[in-house]
Write a structure and sequence with these properties.
- The structure is a homodimer of 413-residue chains.
- Chain A is an alpha/beta fold.
- Chain A contains 13 helices and 17 strands.
- Helix content of chain A is 35%, strand content 22%.
- In chain A, helix 4 (102-118) links the parallel strand 3 and strand 4.
- The model of chain A has no long low-confidence stretch (mean pLDDT 96).
- Chains A, B: Zn(2+) 1 binds at residues 89, 100, 198.
């Protein structure tokens, strides 16, 4: 069971207002194809931030920023305790959709309005965060804002990161400061809990015909580059027995990895060979070099370690492997998920547990305070694409669950 | 047995002079890495042609050209009959070597000098041809010169072909005419026989430790483009069972083609998947499209037809196939090869029969007059590369065999 103020907050969620916020935000950087290009700290994103700051002020929020240009819209509670925070990001991929990140931020604002409309004063402050540069599309890597918030020492390494436009992250932060000179710094980094509401970016909820998931954690990830050597030679004159075809070797290595790794009984396992490069890549020349990337994901550190060992064992005369990325699995806070599940139950929202296969700002927050996520369905799992879509009904359901849960958490955590 | 003038011509071959010609030609378009860039009808190639015309004049040759700027250096015979012709090309790939084509032209000139030095007058004229644009690197397709010589109607379709420098083949022909305005047109297209001496561009002669091959024909070739469709999706969020990975499909299709086509007992068969393209080609995205090219070669029309049927049978919902090129096998003239083998035997040159896996101008000539080829070894089969190399000894052996064979043919064919 959840408290009656929590139920009331959910019931007061203004779905029309949420729809209008989504519609307005989609105009900042709108593309002709219905998608959006809103790069982190670009002029377009600063315009969107200015609009959102105005909306938050209208709701009576305190506005804060920090050294990574994260924004915090805080609705005060009865006590000046560390807040319960929600939020996500509003930067997008170059040809992105209108829900990835944006939905979590705007649903957060709709929760603050619901608390206003229901006349509720929570015990702790409730806060909406806009994390800077989650996509990593202008400045690599992604999730810089949440990384700096949770580990301020990481900022130094990001300052000289330069986007394709020649602008450094440091310069982009300075432009943000010039645009919003009056914003106060967040008084400290305290946070009682963090809940990120996001589109699933995968097909499972739609497949299960469920409107909501409580996320149990984020999969661990390994990226490798596998490179195979051969010898370039004429496709017509070189007998099959005298060839060293690098791409044939690469295909065989990929098949061997599939055979040793795939496990039809393991629903959590993900294995993708996404990027391939062949040299010289000519119709009538035997490939001299072929490389491919491996993206492997699993929630179990033991399975990840076993995979690492197997990949290391591939290296040989004609095969080399190089790690590109390694992220350990994240387990979200059970005490948060208990509240998320109770809220869904109280609101009669059918709900399942799910692992996140994608990265989110919540990944960094999980090391900072009790953290979890809620997912709503993504139509056909499509994301980072103008065709990204979630039915309004599911968007409303997710936002209601968030309103109830934030209220409940602010009083109980 | 071959005649004593044929033996005498072979014995008079001036190998030092041949070496000096190879060395001089390599300076036209020389690259720092030891290779050469001498594009068809470029200023560099015209300079090389001017030098070769002077050399041919010094040997007492009549010089002819034709509508495709092919050059013919003719040493008159006792009678004004159709000549026995040899030759090849002097254009190169952008990063080509110093033997592909060049060797055949210069060895031909060395044969004319050997006839002079031996004081031989042949029955028929003996002629050296320089075919225009064999490589197809400036103007596509290749072997334009020999194509137009054997089928003049093909010229019309080539005139508007434009190189990367914006120059059309017609303009390049006009520049050739301006550079060599005094050249007579070849009186007709008559030719009693054609023998092309060339480097193997494959590893077999070196592998067999033999200095010479009599070429029995040119393999038939099929080029196909196979395209596989999938669905782009997030590598982390999309369960294995819900994926349509285009590259996984492409790898499986390639393996199935290998399994059904490769035949370890068939030395003549060649199968190459040379060019691969993956979309969107990102580490963490399941490929939505993957395509690869097939290069299949075989001397037997029935095997080629069987392969065509098998490839056509691959097409389906998610797989499409498009033919890119189809060339029927060429069988060289037995009466020419009889003389080539007899000459090698008379000169004590160990020799084998070989199929050509690569295209040559002789492919077009074979439809015009009795035609064949001789191959000398290519070190490690390397060609179209600055590292292209044939030992001087093998170059000399090949040229001697050619001198003997041309003399024999001019008196007997």
């Amino acid at each position: 069971m959840i408290s009656s103020p929590s139920l009331s907050a959910a019931q007061h969620l203004d779905t029309d207002w949420l729809d209008s916020l989504l519609s307005k935000l989609s105009q900042f950087g709108a593309l002709d194809n219905g998608g959006v290009d809103r790069q982190a700290l670009s002029a377009t994103e600063l315009d969107a931030r200015a609009w959102l700051i105005d909306e938050a002020r209208s709701l009576g929020c305190e506005i804060y920023t920090d050294s990574a240009a994260n924004l915090f819209f805080r609705r005060p509670g009865r006590q000046d305790l560390p807040p319960v925070t929600t939020g996500s990001h509003i930067d997008t991929q170059p040809g992105g959709g209108n829900f990835d990140g944006c939905y979590g931020v705007l649903a957060g604002l709709a929760c603050l309005k619901a608390l206003n409309d229901a006349g509720i004063t929570t015990e702790r402050p409730v806060e909406v965060a806009i994390w800077t540069n989650e996509e990593g599309s202008r400045f690599a890597p992604g999730a810089m804002g949440s990384s700096v918030f949770t580990e301020p020492d990481t900022l130094a390494a990001f300052l000289n990161v330069t986007g394709e436009d020649g602008v450094t992250f440091a310069q982009a932060l300075e432009l943000h400061h010039q645009r919003f000179p009056g914003l106060a710094q967040r008084p400290n980094r305290d946070m009682a809990g963090f809940v990120e509401l996001h589109i699933e970016q995968g097909p499972l909820l739609e497949h299960l015909e469920l409107p909501l998931a409580v996320v149990s954690g984020i999969q661990g990830v390994r990226w490798y580059q596998v490179q195979c050597q051969g010898e370039s030679a004429h496709a017509g004159t070189t007998p099959m027995a005298l060839r060293q075809d690098a791409m044939q070797l690469a295909r065989n290595v990929a098949s061997a990895i599939e055979a040793s790794t795939l496990n039809p009984g393991d629903d959590a396992l993900r294995l993708t060979f996404g990027r391939w490069q062949v040299t010289p890549n000519a119709v009538n020349t035997i490939p001299s070099r072929a490389s491919f990337t491996l993206d492997f994901r699993h929630p179990d550190p033991a399975v990840l370690a076993q995979f690492d060992a197997r990949i290391a064992g591939l290296a040989g005369d004609r095969v080399s492997v190089a790690p590109l990325l390694s992220c350990e699995p994240v387990v979200f806070a059970p005490q948060i998920n208990q509240v998320l599940n109770a809220t869904a139950q109280a609101l009669d929202i059918p709900c399942t547990g799910l692992l996140s296969g994608a990265f989110h700002d919540a990944m960094h927050l999980a090391g900072h305070c009790p953290t979890s996520m809620l997912f709503v369905p993504s139509h056909r799992g499509i994301s980072h694409n103008p065709a990204e879509y979630t039915e309004p009904r599911a968007l409303h359901t997710g936002a209601r669950a968030l309103a109830g849960a934030l209220t409940e958490l602010s009083d109980t955590i």
